Amino acid sequence: MTVESVSAETFARESLAVLTRLTESTRADVSAAAGLIADCVREDGVVQAFGTGHSQALVLELAGRAGGLVPTNRLQMADLVLHGGDHPGVLDDPLLERKPGIALRLYELAAPRPQDLFVVISNSGVNSVIVEMALHAKEQGHRLLAITSLAHTAAVPATHPSGKKLVDLADVALDNAAPPGDALLPLPAGGAVCALSTLTGALLVQMTVAEAAAQLLASGDRPPVYVSANVPGGFESNLELERRYAGRIRRTAS
User: Fold this and answer.
1) Contacts for 235-240 with beta carbons within 8 Å, 24 or more apart?
2) 84 vs 43, 46, 80, 106, CA distance in Å?
3) What three-state secondary structure class fits 169?
4) Is 61 exposed, middle or buried (0-12, 13-18, 19+ CB in 10 A)?
5) How confident is the model at residue 222 (pLDDT cuts 50, 70, 90)?
6) Which of 26, 102, 216, 226 is the 20 to 30 Å CA partner of 37?
């Protein structure tokens, strides 16, 4: 790729092409993923969403946003401090995600119920805390939806002692179609620029939520969805819906 071809226009063209292909290639997997979410909602479960690094953007896309499902909960490393009583300095450790036992603590702090669905998001699918969370969720009998890059995870070795990757543990896996390393535009002297997985991941999340809502409507169930808190009555309406899941979903200023 030449210097001239690394541009806003090139990224827009290339990323839009991937998004278009994704809408067709993942149709069956999105339907299966939506089935997991719809079943969870029908069973009075909560969607427990977890990711680290920039995958947290997709957790926020799923959990607690306007137009999204109310029974969703965000799991994050900060829970160790916010709910687990750890000193804030623990989050300064750049290797925290590689320490064994962290996912187990996060799971215990969330106190999920058996009918809860876990959605674990990781571009590489090999991060230790990601695999540990997926393993523990499956050991506890939860269904597991993964959002990952199949190209990236196939290109790197497993790092968890189990030898497993996220995709190996999922009941359904959605491929975000991001290239190994995530960046889309190669640079002339090596390396690449402009990550793709947030765009494709957000598309997959919203497609899945839309299909889950469709499946709930088809079975006569009303999807419990958030109204924007910035429209009249929205905040009050959301509080009423949240009462059904009191103590099971966390909504903080962050």
Assistant:
1) 238/70
2) 28, 20, 4, 8
3) helix
4) buried
5) very high
6) 102
* Helix, strand, coil distribution of the chain in percent, nearest 5: 50, 15, 40
At a CB cut-off of 8 Å and minimum separation 6, what does 64 contact?
Answer: 72, 74, 226, 249, 251
The CA distance from 75 to 65, in Å, is: 15
Cβ burial 84-94 (10 Å sphere, 16+ → b, else e): eeeeeeeeeee
Q: Tokens at residue 81, please?
A: 């401090």
How far is residue 231 from each of residues 59, 187, 250, 251, measured CA to CA in Å? Answer: 23, 45, 22, 18
Which residues, including other chains, have CB under 8 Å from residue 209's CB and lie 6 or more apart?
34, 37, 62, 67, 68, 69
Identify the CA nearest to 37 among candidates 225, 186, 199.
225
81-129, pLDDT tens digit by residue?
989 999 999 998 888 888 899 999 999 999 999 999 999 999 999 999 9
Task: Looking at 119-251, list the stretches that DSSP marks H as alpha helix, in order from N- to C-terminal side.
Answer: 128-139, 150-155, 166-169, 197-218, 234-242
With 0-12 CB in 10 A as exposed, 13-18 as middle and 19+ as buried, what is 26?
Answer: buried
Q: What is the pTM of this model?
A: 0.94
N-term to C-term CA, the chain: 40
